[in-house]
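seq as requested:
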Amino acid sequence: MLAIIARYQFSSAADADRFCRHALDLVEPSRAEPGCHLYAFARDIGDGRVVWICEEWASQQALDAHLRSPHVKAFLADVADIEIVAADTRQYEVSSVGPVVMPED
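struct tokens:
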């Protein structure tokens, strides 16, 4: 399984708002794709100019198919004029998944 964590910072909260409005059209079809386990966007509660993206995919092939999909291409065209001032996108290979357990004191 692959996990994607991305952090995008925009020049203004208004730009982040616009990015998120366009992302609404992307979420449902992406979640319906084969191999998609998780697909979510979130605003940073400490900085309104920051948007986080979290994804889990069954395989590289599923992720590649997603990135080639018409809805991703449409989204990228819709947000192409929004300036991203900082971006950090990371892909992880996940060998196992389990719950987070709080340590006992």
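The mean pLDDT is 97.
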